[in-house]
Amino acid sequence: RNEYEKHLAKERGFESLTEYQEHLAKERGFDSLTEYREHLAKERSKRKGNKELSNLINKRLKELDKNQSWLAEQLNVTRQIVSQYVQGKSIPHSGKLKKLFEILGVDTKKCKIKSLDDLLHN
Q1: What is the value of pTM for the model shown?
Q2: Which helix (H) or strand (E) holds 84?
Q3: Residue 99: is its pLDDT beyond 80?
Q4: Secondary structure (3-state) at 18
């Protein structure tokens, strides 16, 4: 996805993806790219699939008596990335999602969320 976005930015005459994103932020009425990104994260956290994943992670961490730092270590990502999953601001790509379910002991046969598609289409 990122490579495609870079391609689009260049095709539209921008020097970089960041420059293009800054342009989009201004065009959409935001004072900065940071403000725009925060807005997008807030919108993502409202998605049903993001909320379901967030609830699932919180529930399993509590049941396992583990914390986000432990999960980050197990997933080999930063604690901030796990925090974004927990807040519903971001979802892991399919490989990380599978690993997340394995680490948390989630039986995908009994879970509403079985794949990245389930999250994206909710």
Answers
A1: 0.70
A2: helix 79-87
A3: yes
A4: helix
